Amino acid sequence: MRHGDKINNLGRKSAHRKAMLANMAISLIEHKRIFTTLAKAKALRLYVEPLITKGKTDSQHNRRTVYAYLQNKEAIGILFKDVAAKIGDRKGGYTRIIKTGNRQGDAAEMALIELVYFNEIYTNTKTAGAEKKPKTRRSRSKKSGAKKEEGSETASE
């Protein structure tokens, strides 16, 4: 019976599983998205989201804790600088899993796991720029008034 056993062992011994998840987390932090099986993506989400939460507060203790899991200085630098800057105000749910169908060889369910704020398709960068310039009646009336004055000047000359 597997009562209370919530971890997915992924058919591997514990040392192999920890190494694999650490390597996948490093790749996810560096490349912002990776393509893997659905089971591995779900296991990676449970592994990497607490590390991203620790990355939000830059302290020596948090850096050492994350280094104990990842053991890659470049990935930790990216996590504490770039990733933490974008997700600083978010309370959780730092990753997104998108199912992409089945693999041809063994029909395994494949998925794309990515960091949420690093996808330009889902973030509204274009609409945010449009909201910065509100149109008011006041500005329109000035433009229409300026056109009438120009028209009257040319007519009087």
Tags for this entry?
13% strand; 157 residues; single chain; 3-stranded antiparallel sheet; alpha+beta; globular; 50s Ribosomal Protein L17, Chain: A
Characterize the structure shown.
The protein has 157 residues and is an alpha+beta fold. The chain has one domain (14-125): Alpha-Beta Complex (50s Ribosomal Protein L17, Chain: A). The protein is 56% helix and 13% strand. It has six helices and three strands, in the order H-E-H-H-H-E-E-H-H. The protein has a three-stranded antiparallel sheet. It is globular. The termini are far apart. The mean pLDDT is 86.
Going by helix content, strand content and strand pairing, the class is alpha+beta
General shape: globular
The arrangement of helices and strands along the chain is HEHHHEEHH
Question: Helix amount, in percent?
Answer: 55-70%
- What is the number of beta strands? 3
- Low-pLDDT stretches: none
CATH superfamily: Ribosomal protein L17
List the helices and strands and how they pair.
Elements: H1 14-31, E1 33-37, H2 38-55, H3 60-70, H4 73-86, E2 95-102, E3 109-115, H5 125-131, H6 137-156
Antiparallel strand pairs: 1-3, 2-3
Put the structure in a nutshell:
The protein is α+β, with helices and mostly antiparallel strands.
